[in-house]
Specification:
Elements: E1 5-9, E2 15-16, H1 18-30, E3 35-38, E4 44-48, H2 54-63, E5 67-69, E6 78-79, H3 95-103, E7 113-116, E8 130-134, E9 140-146, E10 153-155, E11 158-161, H4 165-178, H5 180-183, H6 191-199, E12 206-208, E13 225-229, E14 233-238, E15 245-246, H7 247-259, E16 265-267, E17 273-279, H8 283-292, H9 301-304, E18 306-308, H10 313-329, E19 338-341, E20 352-362, E21 365-376, E22 385-393, H11 398-416, H12 427-433, E23 437-440, E24 447-448, E25 485-488, H13 489-492
Parallel strand pairs: 6-7, 7-8, 18-19, 19-20
Antiparallel strand pairs: 1-4, 1-5, 2-16, 3-4, 3-15, 8-9, 9-10, 9-11, 11-12, 13-14, 14-17, 16-17, 20-21, 21-22, 23-24, 23-25
Helix pairs in contact: 1-2, 1-7, 4-6
Length: 497
């Protein structure tokens, strides 16, 4: 009997060329691997046996891709690169800048590194040990260090220039591992000391942090299906309910990318695949492949907003159990990020965390599970756990208690929204407020026109966009007000009075 295991392949920042992925998949197919998956840290995971993997290993060596077998000691560098243009528009952080950083990586990190734009909530900001968050100043980055094996996070008072992000990361890792008693498993780890030691070893381009990081409220975009961007292009998001992608299907995806000059594929922290740069004229070719393999790309939102541990079938089964009950009871879960944790060492990004605990253990075997529900501070997945909502819940009662947690989430969001009462304006004021511009949601293209207001959200005609409460969001897809784009009415063919 062949013993099962896994190979984990890191794609820096979650991106890989279709040519490189094709070589990996062909080698995997030769080793009798029929399905692969993507991990929370945007890496490729192949379940393996113990025979016939020589070609696969050689391919990975040739491609110079970091990989591991049956251990997780070399975490992938996570980035918000997949969100560029698809979910982020107004930012200085372009795809080219991400790639400039990735090209500078000249070592294999042992600490988790996250490289993120603060203008998105598609990828986590702080689940790494070294967390880079783009500042408001072009080409400068805030750095947050979460010391290994602790919940202690330190924000450096300096911001770092783009070209020094990798060098600073490398030096931080070196200092931490050379001084384990100071910085590992030490909740009192001194961040000021860490950076003092770093600056003593070299010069880096930094400047004082002028503003605090203000992460946007968590709003998970719908990351499946065909979505238009930049007028002439589509991006395609593919998610699989069982988290498994057939090798033959992915091979055809790679071939079509090469045929239509799509230069890269992106894996996401939601264990999905993104293809950007699909031209309108060849979209039908992608539909053909999806139809051939019966790939569904319009799952319900309550399936897409879960973070589930890698290598955990029990966690995936629990997710499916919860989703089944949510669907049966028609429970609203929009904007809630659920996490499932069955192991103590896993790092999960969530608004509401379901944590499994065993009441009885024999060696490595666990029996009789109960569940705790924990909520992040302000229900923001980028914050640490705020409080315990319920403890010691039996599985049977878990869906009901999660429904109660969801109610608390929406009550909190309602209370935190601005309580602005809009009085009807006089007819003359309404006429004067009609401008030549409207405001469009970048995700579903719904338009807010001050001339008409938003009846569904209780906004009367004549209410200017800047007078809307900060909690205002799109009436269709709930995108935040601050993400809307100002556009000319003439570009939409809207008559100007």
């Amino acid at each position: 009997m062949v013993k099962r295991g896994f190979i984990k392949v890191n794609f820096i920042g979650g991106i890989i060329s279709p040519g490189a992925l094709k070589r990996i998949l062909l080698a995997a197919k030769k080793a009798a691997i029929t399905q692969v998956s993507f991990g929370l840290r945007q890496q490729l995971i192949l379940e393996t046996g113990t025979e016939n993997y020589f070609d696969l290993r050689e391919t990975l060596y040739d491609l110079n891709l970091p990989f591991e077998e049956n251990v997780v000691n070399l975490p992938n560098i996570v980035s918000s690169y997949p969100a560029v243009e698809a979910f982020i528009n107004k930012t200085w952080l372009s795809e080219g800048i991400y790639k400039d950083i990735f090209d500078l990586v000249d070592y294999t990190p042992k600490l988790k590194i996250n490289i993120s734009d603060s203008n998105q909530s598609f990828t986590p900001l702080y689940t790494g040990n070294i967390n880079w968050v783009a500042s408001s100043s072009t080409h400068f980055w805030h750095v947050f260090v979460r010391f290994p094996k602790t919940n202690s996070i330190y924000e450096w008072k300096e911001t770092v220039y783009t070209n020094d992000v990798v060098a600073v990361s490398k030096k931080i890792e070196e200092i931490i591992f050379n001084n384990p008693s100071l910085f590992i498993r030490n909740e009192e780890a001194n961040g000021d000391l860490l950076f003092k030691m770093m600056l003593e070893t070299g010069h880096y381009n930094t400047k004082p942090s002028e503003t605090l990081v203000q992460p946007m409220d968590f709003r998970l975009p719908y990351y499946e299906g065909f979505n238009r961007y930049n007028s002439n292009f589509f991006w395609l998001g593919i998610y699989r309910r069982d988290e498994l992608f057939d090798v033959d299907f992915l091979l055809e995806i790679c071939d079509l990318c090469l045929q239509t000059k799509v230069g890269q594929l992106c894996s996401t922290p939601w264990k999905s695949l993104m293809v950007k740069g699909i031209e309108d004229k060849v979209r039908y070719l992608w539909d053909v492949i999806l139809a051939k393999y019966l790939i569904n790309v319009r799952h319900a939102a309550n399936e897409l907003n879960f973070q589930v541990e890698d290598f955990s079938k029990s966690a995936l089964n629990l997710k499916q159990y919860i989703v089944k009950h949510f669907s049966k009871d028609d429970i609203r879960t929009f904007a809630i990020c659920f996490g499932i944790k069955t192991r103590t060492k896993s790092e999960i990004f969530s608004s509401i965390l379901i944590k499994r605990r065993a009441l009885l253990t024999f060696g490595e075997r666990e029996f009789f599970f109960v569940y705790d529900i924990l909520c992040a501070q302000d229900f923001n997945p980028n914050e640490r756990t705020g409080y315990v909502f319920r403890k010691n819940i039996l599985k049977y009662f878990l869906p009901k208690e999660l429904k109660n947690a969801a109610k608390e989430f929406y009550q909190f969001k309602t209370k935190s929204a601005d309580e602005v009462v809009f009085a009807p304006k006089k007819e003359k004021e309404v006429e004067e407020s009609i401008a030549s511009h409207v405001y469009q949601c970048p995700n579903c293209f719904t338009v807010y026109d001050p001339a008409f207001g938003d009846v569904d959200n209780g906004i009367v005609a004549g209410t200017q966009f800047h007078d809307l409460p900060s909690g205002y969001c799109c009436s269709l897809c709930e995108t935040a007000k601050k993400d809307f784009n100002e556009i000319a009415k003439s570009s939409l063919g809207v008559q100007i009075s």
